[in-house]
Amino acid sequence: MSEALSALIEHLRGDLTLDRPERLRERVDALDRIERLSLYLSDTPDTLALSAGIAAQQSRLDAVNERLYRNLRDAIRRGDGANCLREWMPVAEHADTDTSIAQGEGYDHLDALLGGIAQLHEPADDVAALMPEMVFYQPTPARHIFDLIRRIAPGADDVVLDVGSGLGHVPLLVGACTSARCIGVELEPAYVASARAAAADLRLSRVSFIQADARAADLSQATVFYLYTPFTGGVLGEMLERIREQAQRRDIRLCSLGPCTQVLAAQRWLRAIDVELHSDRIAVFVPCGNDDPAF
Ligand SMILES: C[S@@+](CC[C@H](N)C(=O)[O-])C[C@H]1O[C@@H](n2cnc3c(N)ncnc32)[C@H](O)[C@@H]1O
């Protein structure tokens, strides 16, 4: 294992392209590989020299990443986030054909990017247990948020509401990349506090977070609802009924990811648009229309 690690460190040392900010994916992959291979490193005199090489490459790659995140944070604070972050958006024509771009459940370098920009802190404890049918926190992978932004292209008149927003990845990234207002509704106060701190730090004045049970929250502003399966069963049914009432008053869109997509697809008052439905890809639905009896 230490030969593989030596070879990797040697290779990284010689690869000067890794200092280019846009090579984030390669840096994140390299840091992951170093971490994985280091797990098997034992403490022998031979490995001491290697350890110094490992630490040097890790701090070099981390420093380039930190610089990139800092520049992007500054751009967002200046109101230039849309320009700078869109460079990271998977290219449209690839996203529709290359399933690794907008499909799948894993996390990648774009999550490192979002984490580095937003600097969100997941509270270690003090998180209340959820009631049955309410789903524990897991963030939407960043590439799906980029896919969401590309597909719904929210404008200044839109209000995007993330139902069960956790640490706020979706409202923060959508707010930084578009002129839409974004609202996160989340039950857990510690997540809301962290999300609010990130929005304030990035000066995203159009992004706000409400601490509430989503079933009781004010939905009257939203034009786009996003659900990364925040609940199941009867709780999801209740929420969908509340959203349907909103749909009877104005034009809305509903976007989903995860197992709840199947439940939305089964609603007679909704129809999916745009792409084939997969639970590991963002789905976009619109109400069928006032003339449809199911509505
Ligand atoms: C799967 S996570 C999704 C997080 C976030 N929407 C995202 O995509 O990054 C589900 C979130 O819904 C929250 N949640 C569950 N039941 C809720 C409820 N009744 N009202 C508000 N939030 C709720 C959980 O605390 C958790 O943070």
Question: What this model shows, in words?
Answer:
By secondary structure, the chain is of the alpha/beta class. The protein has 2 domains: 2-77; 92-287, 3-Layer(aba) Sandwich (Rossmann fold), CATH 3.40.50. Helix content is 48%, strand content 11%. The chain has 12 helices and 7 strands. The protein has helices at residues 2-14, 24-38, 45-77, 81-86, 92-97, 99-102, 109-118, 142-152, 169-177, 189-201, 233-247, 260-265, and strands at residues 159-163, 181-186, 207-211, 224-227, 253-256, 270-273, 283-287. The chain has a 7-stranded mixed beta sheet. Helix 11 (233-247) links the parallel strand 4 (224-227) and strand 5 (253-256). Helix 1 (2-14) packs antiparallel against helix 2 and helix 3 crosses helix 7. The radius of gyration is 21 Å and the shape is elongated. The N and C termini lie far apart (61 Å). The relative contact order is 0.09. The model has no long low-confidence stretch (mean pLDDT 92). The structure holds S-adenosylmethionine. GO terms for molecular function: methyltransferase activity. Residues 160-224 form the Methyltransferase domain. One of its GO terms (biological process) is methylation. It holds the Pfam family Methyltransf_25. This is Class I SAM-dependent methyltransferase.
Which structural traits does this protein have?
295 residues, alpha/beta, Rossmann fold, 2 domains, 48% helix, elongated, binds S-adenosylmethionine, SAM-dependent_MTases_sf
